[in-house]
Amino acid sequence: MRALVTGGGGFLGGAIVRQLLKQGDEVRSFSRGTHPELGMMGVEQFRGDLGEREALLRAADGCDTLFHVAAKAGIWGPYREFFRANVTGTENVLAACRRHGIRRLVYTSSPSVIFDGRDLEGGDETLPYPTHYEAHYPKTKAQAEQMVLAANSPLLATVSLRPHLIWGPGDNHLVPRIVAKGRNGRLRRIGVRPCLVDTVYVDNAAQAHLLAAQRLFPGSPVAGNCYFITDGRPIPLWEMVNRILAAADIPPVTRGISTGAALAAGVVCEALWNILSLSGEPPMTRFMARELTTSHWFSTVAAGRDLDYEPTVSLEEGLLMLRAWLKGSSPP
What we know:
Blueprint: E1 2-6, H1 11-22, E2 26-31, H2 36-40, E3 44-47, H3 53-60, E4 65-68, H4 79-100, E5 104-108, E6 120-123, H5 136-150, E7 157-163, E8 166-167, H6 174-183, E9 189-190, E10 196-197, E11 200-201, H7 202-214, E12 226-229, E13 235-236, H8 237-247, E14 256-257, H9 259-276, H10 286-291, E15 296-298, H11 301-307, H12 315-326
Parallel strand pairs: 1-2, 1-4, 2-3, 4-5, 5-7, 6-15, 7-12, 8-11, 9-14
Antiparallel strand pairs: 10-13
Helix pairs in contact: 1-7, 3-4, 4-5, 8-12
């Protein structure tokens, strides 16, 4: 491939770049900043914002495959910022594909696009989009995903992957938050239900993207579809949290609050942050409270059938590598 990876300097994007290079592909990265580690690997880097169409057009010129990984994530922030990065940015990616005759677009979505605040157990790709979202991230990612799937055509084959709760060495989102709150004693278990979730190790998620690209062409069974990507191993949410804490030598979570108290705190925090225009993310939101008190795990039957996807790194192996990274040493 001659591939462009948006967000190639990020957590998942970087893993995709490394795997593409390993199989001998020519790789470019489009990010807001310059990443020395990419330069050392021989990756051509283009700087720009997803909302800047001309910058994306320059980066995509000459490529035949585009992995659109970059996005604005998070539970809080102005809607316009999420819309610019996730919706306008995806419009610009599609424009770049059409301008340069790129034939394959692999889009990184999220299972949160179909989360309606209730338990999702063994959910598959037939789940509908909800009519209401409690956070800007899933709303704008759902808009973008629908645009990508609708763009599938005889000239441009598109596919959307929904990796769930990506973690591993190099994580700059999920693991650091858990570790920071665990160290300062602010982490609280919410509710008493043994909610099951599934996760995906970063290299498994990256592998799924390459498998999708290899099988993606106009008219293929993959084209125009979305797929849940997980490690296929549902685990109680707070057991997973405690295993991540253990990898950082932090004691497990022992204190907790009720589901009702968490939802009430979310309502209050959202109101205060809106009224007072406070900076940063609130410590709790309604979306976060529902995410932490419901089961959400998904079937990967479709991904196994159409992409030949099967995770290669187990939970135990991933935790060993995470521990090594947290301690500043090379993964085993």
